[in-house]
Amino acid sequence: MYFKIFITVLLLIFSLNTHARKDCPVAIVDNIQIENASVLYLQSGVWRRLGVLTDVGTKERFSALLAAHMSGKRVMVAYENSNFNCNKTDYSTNAIIVRTYKD
Prior knowledge:
Blueprint: H1 2-18, E1 22-23, E2 27-35, E3 38-43, E4 46-52, H2 58-71, E5 74-79, E6 95-100
Antiparallel strand pairs: 1-5, 2-3, 2-5, 3-4, 5-6
């Protein structure tokens, strides 16, 4: 019985850690830059990397980011590492989520 409880708790802790992410603040995207195959964007005075065009999902995230940029809408971009620093320029870490907002 204790073994089952131990395994259940262990799996619960493991699953919580695998879903950690860092949501950067919601803001308008100021600039977008394609450099070689990398997509970079400027938001709130900080350059970040969206991803590489050949990676799965980057083209879809780029499409959402570009649409929001062209219409002046705000976006939230998230990164897999919960310790990601949204206030520091980062040219190497790929985003995992782009969320657009209507307002």
